[in-house]
Write a structure and sequence with these properties.
Blueprint (H helix, E strand, L loop, with lengths): L12 E3 L1 H8 L4 E5 L3 H5 L7 E2 L7 H6 L6 E5 L4 H12 L4 E5 L12
Parallel strand pairs: 1-5, 2-3, 2-4, 4-5
């Protein structure tokens, strides 16, 4: 029998590229790219801000962000951005959306 109480519910939402793209157009939305600066320089989603989850400074950078915004978070495949969403949720952020499949699944324009 499966015990539902043993699993920790995710406190962010994995969303496909269509809804992610639609949310980008909303006010009070922040796009975070949690890849390395090198990956970021190779092509990013327009308007994204780079906060490398692998950097020692990541938690300090997140600490200074306003908690009342909606955060659209992505990386290459959706793995690191999922981790970043988990960290942010633990820090009290509520509106977190992870791009399912990451930028590899992004059919829209990159800059």
């Amino acid at each position: 029998m499966f015990d539902f109480f043993k699993t920790t519910p995710k406190n962010y939402e994995d969303i496909p590229s269509g809804p992610f793209h639609d949310l980008m157009l909303q006010p009070d939305t922040v796009i975070l790219d949690v890849r390395t600066p090198g990956e970021f320089a190779g092509g990013k989603i327009r308007g994204a801000r780079n906060l490398d989850i692998m950097s020692r400074d990541f938690v300090n950078q997140i600490k200074n962000l306003p908690k009342d915004k909606t955060y659209l978070v992505y990386c290459r495949s959706g793995n690191r951005s999922g981790q970043a969403c988990g960290i942010m949720a633990d820090m009290g952020f509520k509106n977190l959306k992870n791009l399912a499949g990451g930028i590899m699944r992004w059919p829209f324009e990159t800059v």
